[in-house]
Amino acid sequence: MTQKTVTLNNDVEMPLEGLGVFRVEDQAVAAQSVQAAIRAGYRLIDTAAIYQNEQGVGEGIKAACKETGLKREDLFITSKVWNADQGYASTLKAYQDSLDRLGLDYLDLYLIHWPVEGKYKDTWRAMEQLYKEGKVRAIGVSNFQIHHLEDLLDGAEVVPVVNQVERHPRLTQQPLKDFSEARGIRLEAWAPLMVGELLQDKTIGAIAEKYGKSAAQVILRWHVQGGVIAIPKSVNEGRIKENFAIFDFELTEADMAAINALNQDHRTGADPDNFDF
């Protein structure tokens, strides 16, 4: 199945769907999941230093390229600088450390993992430096609210290409989506399936039945059809394949509106305005 992409604000093409590996702490399982995803057609793999699986992800990338004949440049690899490593010099070091663990020469996208107060602007300066030197193809942020973005953009030389946030039908993040898109920042959804909590929802189930698709496929289609990049996590090869089979149908405007109406501003993860890690 052909992977669909979006053009970021610096003209880099990014796949609309990828594999997330949060809480996949076993290196071998991480490697197997990544290899299965690339075999199934995924080209975007999203990890982070704090996940402690970059080594396994790198091994999976290497094995998948050997198996499929793909080259490194055919893939889009994301990692993130962790909160304890934020700051100018420490971010530059953290980036190289991630590359070393992954066994890669560059990342396609590097993100600030959380908006650590008093640090994220210095972190962003370091990321701008990496970008200007051609060491990373694109830079962005994660878990930034509107006011964080406003603060970052005040004085930034490079506009983030992506803001990766918790997003699903119970947390549509519409004001943040509108604000970000107006400034050329693409939204990317972590926990796009609400950690499985929405798979029994009646509204989504009825839509899924209409198309002969699963609830997960309908939710993921809602994300990408709305222009949001989605990174569902799974270590099950069957589900990895199922999650990717979303580019052969299209939801109607009424379907999209019905799913949007499920919003309750409900988070499963930490609040970006109130986190302590």
Automatic annotation (TrEMBL):
Substrate binds at H113. Residues 28-263 form the NADP-dependent oxidoreductase domain. This is Glyoxal reductase. Keywords: NADP, Oxidoreductase. One of its GO terms (molecular function) is oxidoreductase activity, acting on the CH-OH group of donors, NAD or NADP as acceptor. The active site is at Y51. The keyword Oxidoreductase applies. It comes from Sporolactobacillus inulinus CASD. Pfam families: Aldo_ket_red.
